[in-house]
User: Which sequence fits this backbone?
């Protein structure tokens, strides 16, 4: 799938990823060699997942493991109340509509639970789950050891304008 086609498909998926960020994910996933898989922590409704999967398919077709418990996170509760936000059905619909369901492997678990049993090498890790400092730090500490030498870690919402300091502090501290 081309960048233009991916941009058109993702335009209709709710999420907080800009086209520029999506294009970066696409190009980074396209460059993966297959020495490891792609893991995304925090999929929400699949916008970034589609960018990653489309880019991967344009390259070596490396599997994308999309880790999310699909019940929202604290920043979502502030907008929607304290009840869980069920997003898995919409995630599946968006992945199918994009035609990438053959390359995306949903892992419907918390990052912690998924990391306990995940035994594949990771070439590209995209962290975009709970944005609280302790949560981002835990995601980094759980998943970093699984990243291959020469692999890449991307942490979303690390620009100076981001409303959540957690990702920025983790990047400054560890990366």
Assistant:
């Amino acid at each position: 799938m081309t960048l233009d086609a991916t941009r058109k498909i993702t335009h209709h998926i709710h999420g907080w990823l800009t086209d520029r960020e999506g294009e970066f994910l696409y190009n980074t996933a396209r460059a993966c060699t297959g020495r490891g898989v792609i893991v995304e922590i925090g999929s929400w409704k699949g916008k970034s997942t589609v960018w990653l999967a489309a880019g991967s398919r344009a390259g070596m077709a490396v599997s994308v493991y999309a880790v999310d418990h699909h019940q929202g996170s604290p920043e979502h509760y502030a907008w929607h109340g304290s009840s869980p936000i069920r997003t898995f059905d919409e995630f599946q619909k968006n992945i199918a509509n994009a035609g990438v369901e053959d390359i995306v492997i949903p892992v419907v678990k918390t990052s912690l639970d998924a990391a306990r049993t995940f035994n594949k090498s990771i070439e590209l890790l995209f962290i975009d789950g709970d944005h609280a400092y302790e949560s981002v730090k835990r995601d980094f500490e759980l998943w970093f050891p699984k990243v291959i030498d020469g692999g890449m870690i991307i942490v979303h919402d690390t620009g100076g304008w981001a409303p959540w300091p957690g990702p920025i502090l983790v990047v400054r501290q560890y990366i």
The chain has eight helices and five strands. Residues 19-30 form the longest helix (12 residues). Helices lie at 3-10, 19-30, 47-58, 74-80, 88-98, 111-117, 133-143, 165-174.
